[in-house]
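lol so apparently i was supposed to do this last week
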Amino acid sequence: MGMQVVSLTLVLATCGLSLDNGLMRTPPMGWLAWERFRCNVDCSTDPENCISERLFMDMADRLAEDGWKELGYEYVNIDDCWAALQRDSQGQLVADPQRFPSGIKALAQYVHSKGLKLGIYGDLGTYTCGGYPGTTLDQIELDARTFASWGVDMLKFDGCYSNSSTKAMGYPMMSKALNATGRHIAFSCSWPAYEGGLPPEVNYTLLGEICNLWRNYDDIDDSWESVRGIINWYSMHQDVLQRVAGPGRWNDPDMLIIGNFGLSFEQSKSQMALWAILAAPLFMSNDLRAISIQDSAILQNKLLIRINQDPLGLQGRMILKGIDDIEVWMRELSSSTMALAFFSQRVDMPYHYTTALSQLNITAPDVFSVLDVYSGWVHHDLKVDTKFTVTINPSGVVVLYLYPEKSLVKTQEKKRP
Ligand code: GLA
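anyway here it is w/ alpha-D-galactopyranose bound
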C-alpha cells in the first residue's frame, strides 16, 4: 500500500513537472554551427564555410556517413545568422534566400532523409545576438508554428535584446507554444546564462519544467582558457547545479570544440571526459569534413559516450581538489558502476597521483574491476583499500570506469548453457 502511494505520487509529479515532450531522456548529441562557423555570411568568398544550406547538408552527410550517427550524434543544429534580415509579408521568419535557396523545410527533409534531426535558433527579443530578426512576445506562437511547419526538431532560444521580465514571460510561453504545435520539438533555453546562472535569479525548478536543456554560463571559445573557465564555474557551483539535472533536463556547459585550433590533445581528452561526467549535451562545433583521426577518436570514444548517456542521468561532480591542482571527479552510473576522472590543472609535467578508492569515499563493493577509458588498460580485483597510482599529463585527464568485480562473473555465468 505504502509503495503504491509512493509510485502514484511519483507519476503525478512527473506529469506535472516535466516539459511534456518526452525528449532527451539522456543528454542530446549532435553538431551545432556556432563556435566554429559563427556569423560567417560571406558565401561569395568563403562558400564552404559560410552559414548556408550547403554547410548543414555537408555536416549531415558527415554525421550519417562517418560513424557519428550510430554513436548517437543525431542533431544537425543551425545557430544564429540563418534568417533573412526582414520577416516576410505575413510576418513570418524566413531563411536568407541567397544562402538557403531551398528553404528550411527542404533542409529538414534532407536531414531527416539521413536519419538525423534538425535544430534551429531563435532569440527572445527584438534581435538575435547577431542582429537578425528576434521573436517578441506577440510573435512567439507564430514562430513556434513556423518551426513546426518546417519540420524542425529542436529550438535553441537565445536571450539577446530583451530584459529579465520579458524573459520570465517569454520562455514559458515558447515552451507552451512548442508543445501546442503537436510536434516534438526539444527546447534549449539560454535564459539562465543571462541571469547569472544561479538562484535566486534563476529558478531551476521552473527551467526543468519548461526546457530540455539550458545554457548556464558564458559562451565557449576556441581556447583552453575558455574550457577551463567553464569547468571551474561548474565545479564551483556544483551543489546548485548537480541536483537540477536529470532525464529530460540538462545543464549545458556549451559546445565541444574538439577538432578545432585551440586545444591540445590532452585538453581535448579533458573536455570530452568532463562533459561526460557532467552529463552535458554533446554538441560538437567543428568541421567534420576535415577532422583528424585522433580528434574523431576522442569524440567517438564509446565508453565515454556510454558514461555520458547513462540512463540514470545523474550529473557527476568534483569530489576532491588538492593543493597539487589535481581534481578528482566522479559520476555515479547505473548497475553499480561509476566513472572517475583525475583531472590535472597543473602546468609542469606528468604527475603521479596515488590514492585508494576508500580515500575517495568509495567503500562498496569491496572489489572493483577498472577500465582505463582512454588507454583501454584493464585491472581486475582492485580492492577499495589498495593504493594505486595514475599518471596525469598537464591539463590532461585519466578516466577510470569502475564496475563491481562480481558483475563480470555474473555475465560469464549467465552465458553457460
Ligand atoms: C549568444 C549565444 C551563442 C550564440 C550567439 C549567436 O552569444 O550564447 O551560443 O548562439 O549568441 O549570436
